[in-house]
Amino acid sequence: MSPSDEVDDLLTKAGANWRASQPSPPEPDLSRIVPTKKARPWGVPAKKARRWVVPALAAASVAAIATAALIVLPDKHQHSVAQGKQSATQGGAPTSLGAIAGGRKHPLQVRIGDRVQVDGQVVAAPGKPVVYCFPVVTSLPAIVGQGPQPAKCEQGAELPVTGVDVDRLSDLSTVQGVKAGFAHLEGIWGGDKFTVDKQGPVVRAADPGPKVPCAAPPGGWKPGYSDDLVTPAVAAFVDGRPNQLQELSFGSPTALPAGGGTPGGPSVLIIGVAHGDLAQIRQLLTPLVKGNLCVTRVKLSKTEVDKLRDQVGAIPPSVLRPLSYGGSVGNHPINITLRILDDKAVTALEPLGFDNLTITPIVRPVN
């Protein structure tokens, strides 16, 4: 197994584990990837899609390599995961920012003294401050045969919290005197500490499921999943027009079942057109796709998305404090998960255009 495969496995496992304790992502823009008839996990693209990026709360998974928030970047051989817009209350960039109170430039911006909230794991070790753990992926495998180990945050991922009632944490466990559990916490932001005055179970927002930005054709969408929508001809068509089109993605017009999981509706191949004649692109693609096809207008081409992603990568980690970032699809195609959207992060990201970004901070304001 190659190092990149090991990292992929770590990211996948960490995302699945963290999802269980985190809010579901809000409504996507173009689509969220749906699995095929081979029952791939939610959020995994079809085999014939060619790129993959680390999403921000993709299926609510947030990942970073342990220590110093090392960013995992997509390369030209990886798969693409469709991500879309998220509401301001849940972490995503709004369609239009408009006027924001308090002189702030983004509704998720946080300053010292603001009331904020987090969801996730809390660890209380004897003789040490209680801490909230920012979600990260450790590169060290569990040691077989040692039995349960005490919980701890990865190095640099601790946020000191005061006012937490440790005995009220959900899924509370105690190993070697270290207590750990999960909670939704609200309180006052103090820079690098958090004074909690409200505590409860982790908040899980309802997931409306994926949407397709095209009206159903006459007779409706063809039922079922399909591994065959992305033929070599379709792949070549899209790959040959990176200055016009976005990445391929899949969506479904059917919402997720209650509690999440796999939708039972049809899969639709979605192709975003940033530049060029939409009707002409659709006419050229229709005979190449033997299934459901949605050709829709988007703001940015793959080339433009890649350029913006590289600009995010050039921002010093000490300024942005990111957990993950990458390019995706839709009208907010740069996905950034970070610890907090403070003044420094806002100043660094503003030149990229907030309407191009899906920003998901872990520490977010209480509205």
Provide a quick synopsis of the model.
With about 375 residues, this protein is of the alpha+beta class.
Q: Your description of this structure?
A:
- This protein has 2 domains: 3-108 and 206-365, no CATH class; 115-200, no CATH class.
- The protein has helices at residues 3-19, 232-239, 278-285, 302-313, 317-320, 343-349; strands spanning 115-124, 131-133, 158-162, 170-175, 178-189, 194-200, 245-251, 268-273, 293-297, 322-327, 334-340, 357-365.
- The strands form 2 sheets. Strands 1-2-3-6-5 form a 5-stranded mixed barrel.
- By secondary structure, it is α+β, with helices and mostly antiparallel strands.
- It contains 6 helices and 12 strands.
- Helix content is 15%, strand content 23%.
- It is elongated, with a radius of gyration of 21 Å.
